[in-house]
Specification:
The complex is a heterodimer of chains A (280) and B (400).
Chain A (H helix, E strand, L loop, with lengths): L5 H15 L1 H24 L2 H16 L1 H16 L3 H31 L1 H16 L2 H12 L3 H12 L1 H12 L3 H9 L4 H30 L1 H5 L7 H9 L3 H33 L3
Chain B lengths: L3 E10 L6 H6 L4 H8 L2 E11 L4 E6 L5 H7 L8 E6 L2 E2 L5 H10 L1 E4 L11 H12 L3 H14 L15 H14 L4 E5 L7 H18 L2 E6 L2 H7 L2 E6 L2 E6 L1 H6 L4 H8 L3 H4 L2 H4 L7 E2 L4 H11 L3 E5 L5 E6 H10 L4 H7 L6 E2 L5 H10 L4 E4 L5 E5 L1 H8 L8
Parallel strand pairs in B: 3-8, 3-9, 6-7, 7-8, 11-12, 14-15
Antiparallel strand pairs in B: 1-2, 1-4, 4-5, 9-10, 12-13, 15-16
Helix pairs in contact in B: 5-6, 5-7, 6-7, 14-15, 17-18
The chains are: A mainly alpha (280), B alpha/beta (400).
Bound molecules: adenosine-5'-triphosphate (ATP) and magnesium ion.
Chain lengths: 280, 400
């Protein structure tokens, strides 16, 4: 049996890119670092007793009273176990990764929905991105971007982007053919069709993609901490390496609370969107 | 110049549609071509003209190519070959900008399943066509409200489509099409998804609108009653071919082949429906003893221009017109004898089992309604032109 030199090829390629594309990666790193630290600074600059009511108001508006109450209680628990600052760092990472995933993922999903060729090419790549164990992304991320928040964000984006792409594509393809036909019959241009018909009608599916992207980003928190990203992964890792069960549990609990708050809020966003259409 | 003219139009579905046209010209049928080449024949050499202000109905069984044909008129489906002339301009040869202009200004379409935009309010659905033309919001709103008023939906502008019944949704669909003030309306089974009563209401309303607006309408249906009621001309399609085009009368009286005959068979009710089915109550009626003054008052109250006069056994004596009656009032003669002299005794009477077929020439030639009398010569009811026509169309008489 011949040994295929797949690993060697990848290594050589990564080496080559590290050397030759250093400027490119350096640029990306600077931009990402700037975005993340801006968010992190902002979130930590706002005191928790203002931040919590803000989040609760958003939750109330989008998802109802129950979620608002849960958010207040949950976030106060985080404050009381002293993990507020890490939670805000994690939130900054999640927000950044999600934004980038959307900025890349939604246009890519739109492109896929309009071309069967693009669809055929991108689909297996998305499968690959999602099924490859997330740890594997850490290695090239560290190669290109050193340690810290930036490689964490990059690995998170790669892992969390596929649902945004997939569900954008799906949502647009699901727009009823007769509505598309009607819009065409009134003389829509391609762009008018996209912005006035397809995206609005695909919105609840796209928002479901947003929700999944956020959840997947959160699931990368601990893994990102292994390459030096700040946030809630740190106490969890300490819990594991130093066998501090309590600390690990508290870190994990904070992740769960943050996940639930973000999940309910974004689900509420999708629900209020589809309720508007199906008002009875 | 006809408003819409279709010349030698073909639409074939498949990988190499142009190659199929010569085979069709050899006279091979749709089924045969599908079997031997795998190509579907949508429209096979269609030719017709629609004049301005006309309602042109296309009928045919499912799969006969009606939807394909109508979509070739605004190029939602691109014809394989042939010409579609709108005001003399061949739109099959238009470039993209010209096509957009025609779709925006000249032709609008109403769909079978309404195809409204579910995320927009009623008003913003109706504004859609104007919005994509770049019309300013104030004008848009004004025109949308006007269109909604035309279809009887004022006051519903802020509701969502899902909150409306099927009939109301289709009114929105119609208003959306009217809002851009197109010359031509394409209606693909627009009323087929509605239940029968609402459907009849929409047909009546379309006809009422049409007397005001004089659009050129291409209307698709597979319902003969609808076709007869709406159509100035009717085309019948089979397997992509238009087998006959003509006025409703043409189609009914001279069906081109067995396929058309089968379609029209429904209309045998011309022979089946009788005077008794379609007569209305003789209300009001004047008695010979009443005198002119009373007769005039009865006519005024009922807003009618002539009234049947009977004796006390309810035997018909004749008919008195308002002109005659007023003339007599003015000249001051209203003794019973003079009334009797003013009555026109020449009214047509028929027995209740007379068929519509026999009634039709009578109502058409008679100045007055026709009186239905029983075996003892007593008045049972009267028949007016409208009830004969709606009897042909198979509508129930509200008065039985
Ligand atoms: N996109 C398409 N690809 C292939 N064949 C098609 C396509 N659209 C229509 N056809 C075929 O063309 C023929 C005519 O279809 P069309 O929809 O015009 O019929 P129709 O008269 O409107 O029927 P219905 O009353 O069911 O609406 C049918 O045999 C259909 O299978
Ligand atoms: Mg059809």
């Amino acid at each position: 049996m011949i040994r295929l030199p797949i690993g060697d090829v990848v290594e050589t390629a990564v080496d080559w890119m590290t050397v030759n594309w250093a400027g490119f990666f350096g640029g990306i790193k600077l931009i990402l670092l700037w975005i993340i630290t801006s968010f992190q600074t902002l979130f930590n600059w706002i005191p928790f007793f203002i931040m919590i009511p803000l989040i609760a108001a958003l939750a109330w508006f989008l998802a109802g009273r129950g979620t608002a109450i849960f958010s207040v209680v949950g976030l106060l628990v985080i404050v009381s176990i002293g993990l507020w600052e890490q939670t805000m760092a994690t939130l900054a990472l999640v927000v950044t990764a999600t934004l980038i995933a959307l900025v890349i993922g939604i246009p890519l999903g739109i492109w896929m929905s309009r071309s069967n060729t693009v669809n055929r090419i991108v689909r297996p790549i998305l499968d690959f991105m999602q099924t490859m164990p997330a740890f594997v992304y850490l290695i090239p991320a560290v190669y290109f971007f050193d340690l810290g928040m930036v490689p964490g964000a990059v690995a998170t984006v790669i892992f969390a982007m596929p649902p945004a792409v997939r569900l954008t594509n799906l949502g647009i393809r699901q727009v009823p053919a007769d509505v598309i036909e009607a819009a065409r019959s009134f003389g829509c241009t391609g762009n008018q069709m996209l912005f006035k018909v397809q995206i609005p009608l695909a919105m609840s599916t796209i928002l479901a993609g947003l929700n999944q992207t956020i959840m997947l980003s959160l699931s990368m928190v601990v893994i990102s901490s292994m390459i030096g990203a700040e946030g809630l992964g740190i106490p969890v890792l300490q819990g594991i390496t130093q066998l501090k069960v309590g600390l690990g549990f508290e870190g994990g609990l904070a992740v769960v609370i943050l996940a639930m708050v973000l999940d309910r809020i974004t689900q509420g966003l999708g629900k209020s969107n589809s309720e508007k259409m199906n008002a009875k | 110049m006809p408003k819409v003219e279709v010349k030698n139009l073909y639409k074939i579905f498949g990988s190499n549609p142009k190659k199929i046209i010569p085979i069709l010209k050899q006279g091979k049928g749709k089924a045969e071509i599908l079997k031997s080449t795998g190509h579907g024949v949508g429209v096979n050499n269609a030719n017709f003209q629609v004049d301005e202000g006309e309602i042109f109905v296309v009928m045919g069984l499912s799969g006969s190519g009606k939807s394909t044909l109508i979509r070739c008129l605004n190029l939602l489906i691109r014809p394989t070959s042939g010409e579609v002339l709108i005001d003399g301009e061949n739109i099959a040869a238009c470039n993209k900008e010209e096509l957009l202009r025609i779709r925006r200004k000249k032709i609008a379409m109403v769909f079978q399943n309404f195809a409204l935009l579910p995320h927009r309010t009623v008003e913003s659905n109706v504004e859609f066509g104007l919005e994509i033309q770049g019309v300013d919001p104030a004008t848009r709103r004004e025109k949308a409200l006007e269109a909604l008023r035309l279809v009887g939906l004022e006051g519903h502008e802020d509701r969502m489509p899902s909150q409306l019944s099927g009939g109301m949704q289709q009114r929105v669909g119609l208003a959306r099409a009217l809002a851009t003030d197109p010359d031509i309306l394409l209606m693909d089974e627009s009323f087929s998804a509605l239940d029968p009563l609402i459907r009849k209401e929409m047909q009546d309303e379309l006809l009422a609108l049409q007397t005001k607006m004089h659009k050129t309408i291409i209307f698709i249906t597979h319902d003969l009653d609808e076709a007869l009621k709406l159509g100035d001309k009717i085309a019948i399609m089979k397997d992509g071919v238009i087998v006959q085009t003509g006025t409703p009368e043409d189609i009914l009286t001279n069906p081109a082949d067995d396929y058309v005959k089968e379609f029209v068979q429904d209309v045998n009710r011309v022979k089946v429906v009788t005077a008794a089915n379609i007569m209305t109550r003789p209300d009001p009626i004047a008695y010979a003893k009443d005198g002119v003054r009373v007769a005039v008052r009865k006519m005024r109250e009922a807003s009618i221009s002539s009234i049947f006069v009977v004796d006390k056994e309810h035997h018909v004596k004749g008919i008195l017109s308002i002109d005659k009656a007023v003339e007599m009032l003015k000249s001051g003669t209203h003794d019973p004898e003079s009334v009797r002299r003013a009555i026109d005794p020449n009214v047509e009477t028929v027995s209740p089992d007379t068929s519509i077929e026999t009634l039709l020439p009578l109502v058409i030639n008679s100045k007055y309604p026709i009186v239905v009398i029983d075996a003892e010569q007593k008045v049972m009811g009267i028949i007016i032109k409208v009830s004969v026509l709606s009897g042909i169309l198979g509508e129930e008489n509200e008065n039985d």
